[in-house]
Amino acid sequence: MTAGETRGGSAAGANAVDPGQQALNSKIKRVAAASAAALVVAQLISLVQTIVLARLLTPTEVGLFAAGTVLTAFLSDFSEGGMRAGLVHRDVALADAAETVFRGTIGTGLLMVIGALVASPVIGIVFHSAEAGAIAAASAGSLLLYSLINVPEAMLQRQFSVKRRLVVGPSISISFAVTSVTLALLGFGVWSLVIGSYVSYVVWVVAVWAITDWRPGRGKFTWSMWREMARYGFPLVMGFVGTRTRQMIESVVVGRGLSTAALGFYRYGTRISQIPVNVIIDVVANALFPAFSRMSDDTERMRRNYLQALGSVTLFAVPLSGLIIAAGEPAVVVLLGEPWRGAGIAVVAMAGMGLGKAFTCVSEEAIKGCNRTSLLNWYTAVEFGVGVVSLLLIIPFGLVGVGLAISITQLTVGIFCLYLAKGVVGVTFGQIGRTVVPPIVAGAVAVVAVALLEHQVFHSDTHGIAVGLGMLVVDTLAFLVVYLLALTAVAPAMVRALVPLLLGRRARRG
């Protein structure tokens, strides 16, 4: 039953609590709709930019950029220390908390810049490339820019800001695309990506400060507040560290153990595989965390909304991941060209990332919203342990092994997070199973059908780009039709609830 439904004689009682739920639902829907609109624009820009850059740059050049920025990617999350989430969750002494986080993260950002500069020669040694070391040093300043956006981003997220979704994301995508493509056309090579990244960070800072009404100086920095915020954020930092360390190990293993070109395939393969993840995070998670924070004291309301959110993200994550399995390799070849087939193979191997992240995303936001962040230490340990062990065991299979290790890790972590959230939210394994299993079954049927269509009939990667794209569109439509038909067969009630959801109306039971 969705929020706001009534049954029989309980209508009067339900209506007494409905206004607050309806107001919150309205905010969530506005943010989700704005996120979806912004995401469509950003992903289209990103897709065009990726295609153009793939035609202008070689896999080796993209691999050099991945190697050179592996350190800044690792250090970036330290600058905010998990405190952005603490600000979103907080209800009291907000002005002092915001001032404390702002000053603290700038200080941490400066330390990270110095650390990245000092460590940059190590990157050159690890990847056997002086240019990778130079890129690492040149990219260090982005850490300070990143530290400037934490408090404004948190304050806008607290307010369920629609402008944040409609303005900031597309602005970042456009600035990076225009800068990097222009410079690549002028022959800047890998440095077109470095400069484009800097420009996008500057635009991010300017955009987010332009639309927030928060300004520093309205509160007071205190060490006691810093310690309080740090306690909340520490498990999140450990999660960032675990994830970034695993990703850094993957990059080193691929770049040093295979080749710089393979690292380029890995970079673009990961980028494409993360599209479902970006959809889930941008459209759902950014609205869920502040919403869960506000309903955490109402057990029944929390349980109902958690299952509803989990069902929604699973419904949409399954076809996104399924399409990657069924037609990911030919799609990459059609869009990026034959030299990037290795990235297409990696994309298929990484397809489990989307579904695993869907489970993790909703569960993590619920755990954070209920102020149980210490549980996320277990999530971090599982992600790091499974990620490293699976990578070492499967790396003999090359880039495919790396991709499979990523899929195995994310699916394992996703299932584990469902287990963690189960105790926090108060749901049962049966409720979780009835929510996530039907879409997975329907998706598996659609994957088999479309894989046969693509690989036995179409072979879209053997045709020109226009014909190939047309065939991929047919693949996508066929997948959606088969998916909905299969879902109707295994869970008709879920389809009946999905239709009004797509139409923007609340489902009602008779």
Q: Count of helical segments?
A: 21
User: Helix/strand/pairing class, anyone?
Assistant: mainly alpha
Distance from N terminus to C terminus (CA atoms, Å) equals: 11 Å
Average of per-residue pLDDT values: 85
Note the run of SSEs as H and E: HHHHHHHHHHHHHHHHHHHHH
Backbone shape: globular
Total E-strand runs: 0
- Helical content stands at over 70%
Rg calculated over all Cα atoms: 23 Å
The description of the largest β-sheet is: none
Task: Please tell me about this protein's structure.
This protein has helices spanning 11-56, 59-68, 70-76, 83-89, 94-126, 130-138, 142-147, 150-158, 162-185, 191-211, 223-257, 260-273, 275-295, 299-336, 341-349, 352-369, 376-394, 399-426, 429-458, 465-490, 492-502. The protein has a domain at 44-257. Helix content is 83%, strand content 0%. With 510 residues, it is mainly alpha-helical. The protein is globular and about 65 Å long. Mean pLDDT is 85; it is low at 1-17 and 505-510.
Write the layout of secondary structure elements.
Blueprint: H1 11-56, H2 59-68, H3 70-76, H4 83-89, H5 94-126, H6 130-138, H7 142-147, H8 150-158, H9 162-185, H10 191-211, H11 223-257, H12 260-273, H13 275-295, H14 299-336, H15 341-349, H16 352-369, H17 376-394, H18 399-426, H19 429-458, H20 465-490, H21 492-502
Helix pairs in contact: 1-9, 1-13, 2-6, 2-12, 3-5, 3-11, 4-8, 4-11, 5-6, 5-11, 9-10, 11-12, 11-17, 12-15, 13-14, 13-16, 14-15, 14-16, 14-19, 14-20, 15-18, 16-18, 17-18, 19-20, 20-21
